[in-house]
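Structure in, sequence out. Go:
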């Protein structure tokens, strides 16, 4: 028997949608900042799903995907289960247009227990975990990169409790899946490896031009979320393919972390994200202010660049310049 639910101060009946806030925090002048949530309580029983955007405050495309899914695409009268949408998971970073909040230099950790007595952002993260994520069955967290970049889904296979379903969800998104190797660099994404933490099946989406609301990214992200909801039988319909031009590589590639530069200067890219690269090929050149090439950056193995790391192409010694994948 389907019952009402209460999240963020709002009680929502079966087949209805409601709007609330998970926590109030205050800035130095007393200005109250809220953490808005959209609660859709399906008419029938089913899985509990949280979809979040803008954990990195500059990546506003997640807020648009949450809006499309909950305000345009899904009808609560036809939904099986519960969806909690968190359009802006990092309101302070979002205000500033930054990845992290200027107040404490952090972004909220929402996929594992936070610190309800910590800094302003840590308290927001704890509110998301305690009130929402820890009560859910599955989650999708939506991010994005700055152009030039590709769209993809990050899928953690570290945790034996969640790996099989994470893989199914990743494949259902229809995007190229970047999966973590056994000892990869997606630490923390699984969130449930420590004993006693609830396992929540989880993938992250990485969309294109994260700071802009574009049709392409809105469309890719919305289709990915709806596909995962179809996989879990929360809504009716066939899982849809993503447009071919946005699916790259073999569709399933291993995360290989980042590449860094040794010299400072201005970076010129010589390869495109999503383009196959042989090990040893030059992917970028760094110029000094006099116009001399001071470094040619070689790719470490066969694989792909999924996104260039720097929105700004001036780099220091040790700057990360690209997120890369390994071709097996
Ligand atoms: Zn991000």
């Amino acid at each position: 028997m389907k019952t009402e639910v209460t999240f963020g101060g709002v009680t929502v009946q079966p087949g209805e949608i409601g709007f609330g806030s998970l926590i109030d925090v205050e800035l130095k002048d007393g200005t109250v900042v809220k953490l808005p949530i959209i609660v859709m309580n399906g008419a029938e029983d089913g899985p509990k799903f949280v979809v979040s955007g803008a954990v990195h405050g500059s990546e506003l495309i997640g807020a648009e995907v949450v809006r499309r899914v909950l305000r345009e695409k899904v009808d609560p009268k036809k939904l099986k289960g519960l969806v909690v949408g968190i359009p802006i998971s990092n309101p302070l970073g979002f205000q500033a247009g930054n990845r992290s909040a200027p107040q404490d230099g952090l972004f909220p950790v929402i996929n594992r227990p936070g610190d309800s007595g910590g800094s302003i952002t840590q308290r927001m993260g704890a509110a998301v975990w305690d009130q929402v994520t820890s009560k859910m069955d599955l989650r999708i967290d939506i991010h994005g990169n700055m152009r030039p970049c590709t769209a993809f889904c990050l899928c953690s296979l570290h945790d034996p409790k969640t790996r099989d379903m994470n893989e199914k969800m990743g494949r259902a998104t229809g995007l190229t899946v970047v999966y973590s190797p056994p000892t990869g660099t997606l630490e923390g994404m699984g969130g449930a490896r420590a004993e006693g933490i609830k396992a929540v099946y989880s993938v992250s989406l990485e969309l294109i031009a994260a700071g802009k609301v574009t049709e392409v990214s809105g469309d890719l992200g919305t289709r990915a979320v709806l596909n995962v909801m179809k996989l879990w039988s929360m809504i009716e319909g066939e899982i849809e393919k993503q447009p071919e031009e946005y699916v790259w590589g073999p569709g399933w590639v291993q995360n290989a972390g980042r590449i860094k530069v040794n010299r400072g200067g201005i970076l010129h890219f010589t390869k495109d994200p999503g383009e196959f690269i042989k090990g040893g090929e030059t992917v970028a050149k760094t110029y000094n202010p006099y116009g001399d090439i001071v470094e040619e950056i070689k790719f470490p193995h066969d694989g792909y660049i999924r996104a260039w790391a720097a929105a700004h192409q001036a780099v220091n010694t040790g700057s990360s310049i690209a997120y890369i994948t390994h071709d097996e």
